[in-house]
Amino acid sequence: MRKNTAYGYAFLLALTLLFTSAAAANNSIQASQYIRNYSASITAKSGGEIAIDGSVTGTGIMDTIGVKTLNIQKYQSGAWSTVRSFSDVYEYESAQADFYATYQGVEGSQYRAVITFYAASGGGSDSRILTTSSVTAKN
């Protein structure tokens, strides 16, 4: 009986880890009273180009919704430093905002994006920060 219970707990733990990993890989997060979810991805294209795209969805029609800041960062000398910034990319009177940005990187260098999503409605607002995984610029 004890052996079956131990196997049962091990099975439940494995299922929990499986579903947790799948949710984390999606980079989509249930957020707040104003932001239903947000997501972003980064891709290394040919010729060193780095592309970042994503979206933010409000809990309804928002007065303002979008990206407050998008910082593209490069890993150099053991630290991440911002090499390009975008700010205040918004949609108005909308439930969702999508974005797409590119940066001409250097082949072999690592890049990531740090994005601050923002939504406001009826005098209230909220923001959430997401850091993408890193990619290596390719030829």
UniProtKB/TrEMBL annotation:
Record's protein name: Uncharacterized protein
Source organism of this protein record: bioreactor metagenome
